[in-house]
Specification:
Largest sheet: 16 strands, antiparallel
Shape: elongated
Strand content: over 45%
Order of helices and strands: HHEEEEEEEEEEHEEEEEEEE
CATH architecture of the largest domain: Beta Barrel
Radius of gyration: 22 Å
CATH class of the largest domain: Mainly Beta
Structural class: mainly beta
Number of helices: 3
Number of strands: 18
CATH topology of the largest domain: Lipocalin
Number of domains: 2
Oligomer: single chain
Length: 311
């Protein structure tokens, strides 16, 4: 649904370069967006809309991937050199679209985030060969240089807000709402995580996927009508998974062990009628497999600073 609104908005800007009939069409689209923006489906004692409908937001981003492999007394820790990106977000009538500029070539990724009042999700598709690490066997440690491992990740984390009339995710992340009073809500969600790891000569690989269902809680704390602190956690019990280790054409499926996909978000922001700035982040972690065969722990963290202005 949000993608459709993005296309409408881009189409709106495109048509402004054409006269008369196109401008009439633009006016109708703008009326539709304004009507949607003004529709009240929330408790105005707790949540409200900004008076200004256009916003511009700058967001420097820092991201991290970590992986730990454990078998008996042998442990391998991998992590990325931190990746930096810079994004420009433009929003109109509650719809926000952004473009990220890479700084260096640490990893390739594709990220979509949708934070609505009642439902939202994070979709993160990433691949990199920039993992570096340490192999520990008893007292012995061996450094592993980047380029040894090719790694891919697909992560989908969703939420459903029970108390969507009083508690606002968008107030903390997209700034398309104001949270006026402190409030929390129960959360329900589904999570999907899939990874693929392969050494540089393709002799050994580890592939897996997990699907989890869970419940959690989120809270928005408002201080002096200007500070907003958000924190939420949504652990999901893995209900189905597949975990396969391949070495020299020999394939072994690692048995299922009950575990969780744990996701969390935070945001700290200072909000005025027009200006706002702050810091937010999204993280997840999960453990797959058993130590007797192979246990894998994955982590993904993205932290973003932001400053924005409403017009």
């Amino acid at each position: 649904m949000k993608i459709i609104f993005y296309l409408f908005t881009v189409f709106l800007f495109f048509l402004t370069s054409f006269p008369v009939n196109a401008q009439n069409f633009v006016s109708k689209i703008d009326y539709f967006l304004q009507k949607r923006y003004s529709k009240v489906k929330y408790d105005t004692l707790y949540v409200t809309r900004p008076k200004k409908r256009l916003l511009v937001m700058l967001k420097p981003n820092i991201s991290y991937i970590g992986m730990t492999l454990l078998k008996d007394s042998v442990k391998v820790d991998f992590n990325t050199v931190l990746k930096h990106t810079f994004s420009l977000n433009i929003g109109y009538s509650g719809l926000v679209v952004g473009y990220r500029f890479k700084i260096g070539k640490r990893a390739e990724d594709f990220i979509v985030r949708y934070y609505g009042r009642k439902f939202g999700f994070d979709l993160d598709i990433c691949k990199t060969n920039n993992l570096q690490g340490t192999l520990t066997n008893g007292q012995n440690e061996t450094k592993i240089n980047s380029g040894f491992l090719n790694f891919g990740l697909v992560e989908f984390l969703s939420y459903y807000v029970v108390n969507g009339k009083k508690f606002s995710y968008p107030a903390a992340f997209t700034k398309s709402y104001f949270q006026k009073k402190s409030c929390g809500s129960m959360l329900f969600g589904a999570s999907f995580v899939s990874t693929y790891s392969e050494n540089s000569d393709a002799s050994t690989s580890l592939s897996n996927y997990s699907i989890g269902l869970g419940a959690g809680y989120g809270y928005n704390f408002v201080k002096n009508d200007k500070w907003l602190i958000h924190i939420s956690a949504l652990p999901a019990l893995v209900v189905t998974q597949k975990n396969v280790l391949t070495a020299n054409d020999f394939e072994q499926e690692i048995p299922y062990k009950p575990n969780f996909i744990i996701s969390g978000k935070f945001s700290v922001s200072y909000n005025l009628e027009r200006w706002f700035f702050g810091l937010d982040g999204v993280a997840f972690s999960t453990i797959l497999g058993t130590e007797s065969v192979l246990q894998a722990t994955y982590q993904r963290n993205i932290t973003r600073m932001f400053v924005g202005l409403r017009f």
